[in-house]
Amino acid sequence: MRTAEIYRKTAETDIALTLNLNGSGKSEIDSGVGFLDHMLTLFARHGRFDLTLKCDGDTWVDDHHSVEDIGIALGQAFTKALGDKRGITRYGFCILPMDEALILTAVDLSGRAYLGYDLRVPTARVGSFDTELAEEFFFAFARNAACSLHLRKLAGTNSHHIIEGAFKSFARSLRTAVAVEPQFADEIPSTKGVL
């Protein structure tokens, strides 16, 4: 299985999303937010997830509702695709260099939502993208994927590189966490017996 389809319609956004955890990194992204399209395309490639996304949002207001609601939908898709999480590695981490930027990401698919966010992006915008929306995306994802997610900037001065490094590191951390460990394929990776 390890696939999900999410349809989310509100007064602010209309989202259709498909996810395949056992993909090859193919994506078709149309979020209505150019910079987020770029981030989600490289997220799919580095995570080796197949991802399609179409979002019609009220971007004439600003990009906030679209970015947050896409984070919600993507988090829901991971929850649905993982099912009871039997056999998964559960934990993943990556320290990723992006030119002068160095980003640490760690994730635990624990069933408990937490975001530790310390990227310290130096500019308010990358092109027309409001950089504070990166935190909104990751918060919405963590809450809806019910995972502990930590992102830290260890170095970096270029806002584009910092955020791009975060999405790539996030993807590679998730790729490790969702991987099935063949020798433990029938086990829930928790002493509680449930995640």
Question: Describe it for me?
Answer:
The chain has 195 residues and is α+β, with helices and mostly antiparallel strands. It is built from four helices and ten strands; from the N terminus they run E-E-E-H-E-H-E-E-E-E-E-H-E-H. The mean pLDDT is 97.
Topology:
Blueprint: E1 3-9, E2 13-20, E3 27-30, H1 34-47, E4 50-57, H2 64-82, E5 91-98, E6 101-108, E7 114-118, E8 125-126, E9 129-130, H3 133-145, E10 148-155, H4 159-178
Parallel strand pairs: 3-4, 7-10
Antiparallel strand pairs: 1-2, 2-4, 5-6, 6-10, 8-9
Helix pairs in contact: 1-4, 2-3
Count up the helices: 4
Low-confidence stretches: none
- What share of the residues does DSSP label as strand, in percent? 25-35%
Order of strands, main sheet, comes to: 1-2-4-3
| Major sheet | 4 strands, mixed
For the termini, the CA-CA separation is: 18 Å
| Structural class label | alpha+beta
How confident is the prediction overall: mean pLDDT? 97
What gross morphology would you assign?
A: globular
Helical proportion, percent range: 25-40%
Radius of gyration: 16 Å
Key terms:
195 residues, alpha+beta, four-stranded mixed sheet, 4 helices, 10 strands, globular
Task: Give a concise summary.
With 195 residues, this protein is of the alpha+beta class.
